[in-house]
Amino acid sequence: MNYPEKPFHRPPAADGLTVALVDARYLRWLTRQDEGEGQSQGPLARDGWNELLRHLLHRHGLRGTLLRTYWYAVQDDQAVHDDQTLRVLSSTDTDGVALVRQMTADLQALVSGGRVDTLCIASDDDRLMTIIDTAKLAGITVCLVADERALSMPRLMQQDPSWARLLREADRRIVLRASELSQALLARSQMAADGPVSADLDARLQAVVQAWWDDLVEDDRDSLREELPGQRGLPPEVDRELLVRAKNAIGRSLNFQEKRVLRSQARQQATGESQDAGAAAHEDV
Predict the structure, then answer these.
(1) What's the confidence (pLDDT) of residue 34?
(2) Domain spans of the chain?
(3) 158-177: string of b/e by CB count within 10 Å (b at 16+)?
(4) What is the CATH number that goes with domain 13-191?
(5) pLDDT for the residue 97
(6) CA distances (Å), origin 79, targets 93, 193, 224
(7) Left, alpha or beta for 251 (phi > 0: left; psi -120 to 50: alpha)?
(8) How far apart are CA 230 and CA 118, in angstroms?
């Protein structure tokens, strides 16, 4: 018996349209921002997100077009970015009910529209499982953004079973390293928020660097003179020591801009060469 071929014009998920839905509080948690001291709690810088997500999707074999990102946050950053829609939630939404309600409504509209092939969701709220299942039954590929813990699902099932169940519901898990996310979103927001370092603080940081340099034995100085010109930033052990010294000297943790200045001063001290502002801007956070 010959069966008529059913027309189906949707392109494969790997080459179709993708829409992302991002919970800003979840991304902030992925950066481990709440584990550090003196960190800004202002809005994340959204301008680096779409580029980062395109890279992640390609890395996971999804080569489609990122049509748009819906960004859910309790703070309006007053910014306008191409291919992004900001959804401002109530600041009283401490339990995430408003987030789930708005994200679910948007997902339902996208599913019923029938033009989206892949949904990429950045959230750990397991109340989204029902709408995720609805999207999958409609033939849409659903991806969830997670960190490296998603690579060891049995362990995650023990540590955070509700999040693990949500991740297992997805067709694919897009693994995002905290360092990648911080570089794309946190650094830019902190660069915008942190003002210039005063002359007094600049001198105090220079005194910290000079004391650190004076305490080094000559062999360590020679090693740094040889290594630093070919490296980006400072060796981790040197960076940690300088940050601790600076924190003890001024009585608090340094902000992003102050760390850049401290690292630039240390490189200049070791190499004898000055760094321009553009080079210092590329120091690691």
Answers:
(1) 44
(2) 13-191, 195-280
(3) eeeeebbebbebbebbbbbe
(4) 3.40.50.1010
(5) 94
(6) 22, 14, 42
(7) left
(8) 42
| Distance separating alpha carbons of residues 17 and 116, to the nearest angstrom | 5
State the 10-residue block means of pLDDT for the chain, 285 residues long.
47 74 92 50 80 92 93 90 94 89 97 96 96 97 95 92 95 90 68 67 92 92 86 81 88 78 90 55 43
Could you give the CA distance from residue 173 to residue 146 in angstroms, rounded to a whole number? Answer: 7
Burial class (CB in 10 A: 0-12, 13-18, 19+), 90: exposed
CA distance 5 to 7: 6
Structure tokens at 46: 């959204």
pTM strictly above 0.70: no
User: What are the contacts of 84-89 at 24+ separation with CB within 8 A?
Assistant: 84/46, 84/49, 84/50, 86/46
- Between strands 84-88 and 118-122, the pairing is unpaired
**β-bridge pairing 17-23 and 118-122:** parallel
Closest CA to 59 of 142, 154, 160, 172: 172
Handedness of CA 208, 211, 217, 221 (dihedral sign): positive
Residue type, 61: G
